[in-house]
């Protein structure tokens, strides 16, 4: 009995070592591929108290110890004043591991409750406010990089949501310049699978703060898409890896965006004329006129109108 328990804990230990190595490799590759961290960088690591941001900080710290370059890691958490937020959890943890930090206190919870209509999802406004506060903090305190804990599965979810509901082919980049140009945001977990992060956070017993304290309904569509991805992952192993590879292997000439690829010049001898192909839009564009019978009343010789253009048939 004792032997089998010892064997199991040995196996668990080995699995944890392998898992940590896999995560470190993923983070290392992402940092390298996107040149996320350089010598002298001051990195503001945003912690929410969830599994992703704890894992990100943990892996970044371990890479920092063996990195040939020097960079600073500083943790920050925004206490948004949700009822029941356990204020002591993050400070206790960060002190115990010796990471410098600051807890910013701003009551965005009340703002969101006041502004968003009852029954509507509050996450989008809440995240926007949080982002603004963290970006401003980074700028005023001289941090040149902001690290966020989004992982591979978040990126794929965003890709599908944008395709299904946003009409655009875009996801969440591993590195980006904020809209106001003041901050460089990095996502060191961009190559890491959520299920690895979940297992790692469990094994390391991070003091997770539940994310439903605000009482908000999670974004339903994101949840649906997340479930779909998890289901695919179970039924078709390797599919998510392939999908993520697709994000790194884009062929603009095989898509349809004329701003990304010059389709008009392909095989063309002169500049395209549009007047004979695309009639000017008018009110008739908005509705298709129903079939109009011909003068003889014969359906075979019907005349159709489409977007204001008369089309004879039969
Ligand atoms: S779950 Fe609550 S705290 Fe989290 S983003 Fe949504 S509204 Fe904000």
From TrEMBL:
Any one GO cellular component localisation term in the record: cytoplasm
tRNA(Ile)-lysidine/2-thiocytidine synthase N-terminal domain segment(s): 43-205
Q: How is the cofactor bound?
A: Binds 1 [4Fe-4S] cluster per subunit. The cluster is chelated by three Cys residues, the fourth Fe has a free coordination site that may bind a sulfur atom transferred from the persulfide of IscS.
The residues the record assigns to binding [4Fe-4S] cluster are: 123, 126, 214
Motif PP-loop motif: positions: 48-53
Which pathway does the record list?
tRNA modification
What EC number is given for this enzyme?
Answer: 2.8.1.-
The protein's role, per its UniProt record: Catalyzes the ATP-dependent 2-thiolation of cytidine in position 32 of tRNA, to form 2-thiocytidine (s(2)C32). The sulfur atoms are provided by the cysteine/cysteine desulfurase (IscS) system.
| Alphabetized HAMAP family for the sequence | TtcA (MF_01850)
- Identify its protein family: Belongs to the TtcA family.
Q: What is this protein called?
A: tRNA-cytidine(32) 2-sulfurtransferase
């Amino acid at each position: 009995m004792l032997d089998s328990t010892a064997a199991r804990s040995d196996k668990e230990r080995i699995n944890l070592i392998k898992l940590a190595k896999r995560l470190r490799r993923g983070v290392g590759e992402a940092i390298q591929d996107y040149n996320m961290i350089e010598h002298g960088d001051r990195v503001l690591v945003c912690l929410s108290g969830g599994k992703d941001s704890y894992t990100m900080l943990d892996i970044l710290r371990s890479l920092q110890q063996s990195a040939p370059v020097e960079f600073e890691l500083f943790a920050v958490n925004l206490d948004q004043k949700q009822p029941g937020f356990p204020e002591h959890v993050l400070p206790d943890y960060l002190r115990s591991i010796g990471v410098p930090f600051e807890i910013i206190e701003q009551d965005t919870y009340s703002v969101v409750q006041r502004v968003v209509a009852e029954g509507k999802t509050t996450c989008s406004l809440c995240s926007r406010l949080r982002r603004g506060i963290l970006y401003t903090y980074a700028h005023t305190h001289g941090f040149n990089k902001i690290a966020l804990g989004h992982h591979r599965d978040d990126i794929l979810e965003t890709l599908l949501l944008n395709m299904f509901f946003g009409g655009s082919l875009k996801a969440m980049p591993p590195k980006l310049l904020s809209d106001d140009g003041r901050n460089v945001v990095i996502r060191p977990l961009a190559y890491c699978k959520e299920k690895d992060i979940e297992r790692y956070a469990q094994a390391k017993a991070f003091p997770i703060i539940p994310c439903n304290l605000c009482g908000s309904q999670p974004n339903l569509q994101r949840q649906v898409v997340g479930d779909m991805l998890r289901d695919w992952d179970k039924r078709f192993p390797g599919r998510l890896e392939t999908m993520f590879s697709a994000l790194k292997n884009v062929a603009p000439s095989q898509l349809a965006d004329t701003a990304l690829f010059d389709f008009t010049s392909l095989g063309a001898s002169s500049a395209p004329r549009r007047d004979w192909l695309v009639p000017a839009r008018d009110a008739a564009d908005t509705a298709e006129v129903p079939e109009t019978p011909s003068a003889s009343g014969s359906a075979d010789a019907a005349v159709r109108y489409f977007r204001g253009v008369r089309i004879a048939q039969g």
